[in-house]
Structures are given as C-alpha cells and as structure tokens.
C-alpha cells in the first residue's frame, strides 16, 4: 500500500515538474513579449493594442459558447475509444465554425467603433481588424484540440508546442515591433505563431482519435444541451469579464486604457498556476468515476489549494509592487495600489474560473437566468458604490463583482457535488 502511494506521489511530482517547468517558460516568454510591446509601442498604440486583444478574447468566448465544455464533458466519457472521441471532436469543431460568423458579426463592429473613438484612423482600424484574423482562426480549434491530449494526460508534446509558439512569438515581435511600432504589427506577430502551433496541435490530437469529419446527431444534441445553458451566460460574460476595459473606454481616456492593459500583463504571473490546474486537474476531475463524499472532498481540496497559492502570490506582489512596476517603464511607475487591485481581481476571477471549469466538466451548468440576474444586480450596485472616473474605482468594482460571483459559482458547485453524495 505504501509502495503504491509512493509511486503515485512520484508520478504527480513528475507531472507537476514537467507542466510547471514548461508553463514557467511559456509564461516567461509571454511576459517578456508583453513587456517588449509595452515598452516599444507608444501609449496610444498600446491602448489600441489593449482594445484589440480584449475584443479577440470576446470573439473567442462568443465563438465557443459552451462547445468546449460539451466536448470535454462528452470526451471524458469516451476518452479511451479513439473513434468515439474523434466523432466528439469533429462534431465540436463543426459547431465552432458555425458560431464563428455569429461572433464576428457582433464583435467586429464594436471593435471598429472603439478604435475610431480612441483616435485610430480608418486605415489603422482596417489593418488591426485584418491582423486579428490569424489569431481568431486558431482559437476556433485550439481549445478543442487541446482537450484530447489533456484527457489522456499526454502533457509533454502539448507543452513543447506551447513553448515553441511562445518563443517564436517573442522572436517575431522583437524583430518587427522594434522596427515598426504599430498595433497591427504586434498583433500579426502573435497570430502567425498561433497558426503554426495549431497545425502541430492537430497532429498531437490525432494520436488519440481516428481522423473523421463525421457528425453524430446524438453527440451534437448533447453538446447543444450544454451550449443552450452556457451560451446566454457566455454572451453576458463576454461583456462582464472585460468590464474594466469597457468602463475605462467610456469614462476614462486613452492613457487609462494603456495603464490597465500594462498592469494586466503583470497578472500573467498567475498564468502558470492557472494553466497547470486546467491541464492536470480539470481533465482528471472530468473523467473521474468518484461520487459521494470523495467527489465533494476532491472539489473542495482543489479550490482550497488554488486559494492558498493565489493568496501567496498576491501577497508577494504587494511587497514588491514598486520593483514589478519598474519593468513596465516610467509612465506606469506610480500605480502600486492599482497593481494590487488588479492582482486581487484577477485572483478572484481565476478561482471563479476554476470552480466553473470543475462543475461544467461534469456536465453541470448553472441556470443562466439566475447567474446573469445576480451579476447584473451586482454591477448596478457597484456602479453606485465606486467612483468610475478613476482607475482605482473601476478596479475596486472589478474586485467586488469577481468575489461576489466567485461565491455564487462556488456554492453552486458545492451543492451539485453534495447532491451527488445524497443520490
């Protein structure tokens, strides 16, 4: 019995070492790339860059709408059958393409308006929108293809691919943005490596699936059941998750947008931990056969572990805020308080995202009517409580909403696992 425990411990140490080491490299190169862009782009250009990347995230969320959750939940049930897993993946990819047009039709007009509103010329706006295409195209399949090796815990090839994409992005950015400090160049530099990485990702996923373009109506129906419950919330959270940038776009100025975007780069310090949990923990939770008290304990332990880690990192940031801001440049040197607010808000959102990922991986979805209603009430309350003409006020609102929604999703996940115990 002791030997089995030792073997299991060694297995986890090896997995964490590989995943953590690889993610440290990925996040470090991403951070260096972000810092390079912050320092090389003029403040106005970086503000436009922040708006474009914010909208790319919105487009990605809208084009998914819960499809990746459905693929993970269904794939977790058939992950050992290459043919069935291939059908689940193929069905998800086809649905994702259909959702892409819906996403573009909503997001692009909004992005065009915001870019023009903050001083971009028509030519610059067109170039920025065109530059987003490679990255957006990759997102249509990246998140689905990654599910396959994650379910099989084939982590090494997945990590190697991510490292290559990150290093290539840093290299291209260093060579191009230095000579041409424009937003659309920085976006192109990120999009091209993602296309190449996407091609490799298809090969990695292909080891565990039979190549097929077959669409299973039954699988599609099951995915749609999840999408119907997630999509309303996904549409809402596309706006709510980027609330900080939207509010500053309305109440603040171009420099404020650049400041929030720059501070957000430092929150990538938490990216290693968040990604490790999504790669190692969530897929295992999805495929576990545990029920009753064991499942509830696993759910609570995972969230408690993440809370301790995030709290520790945030505390370190509080101690060394001035030193961290130094790397961003002199124009961001007086934002110590705002940096701490960003880290607290980001930590709450990461923890909330983990809670959602855990319970949705089992096919459980919170009723969007309740979730959206509570969230809207929180936002309305916060608007009257905080001064939104200041960055600190907007960031406090973000913390208020993130912590409140974290509690909502934690409680939902708790009662769902608790109900399994009672069955």
Automatic annotation (TrEMBL):
Q: Which UniProt keywords apply?
A: Cell membrane, Membrane, Transmembrane, Transmembrane helix
The GO cellular component terms are: plasma membrane
Q: How does it sit in the membrane?
A: Multi-pass membrane protein
Specify the domain of life of the species encoding this protein.
Answer: Bacteria
Membrane spanning residue stretches = 12-38, 99-116, 166-190, 234-254, 266-286, 298-327, 339-359, 365-385, 397-415
Compartments where found: Cell membrane
Q: This protein is called what?
A: O-antigen/teichoic acid export membrane protein
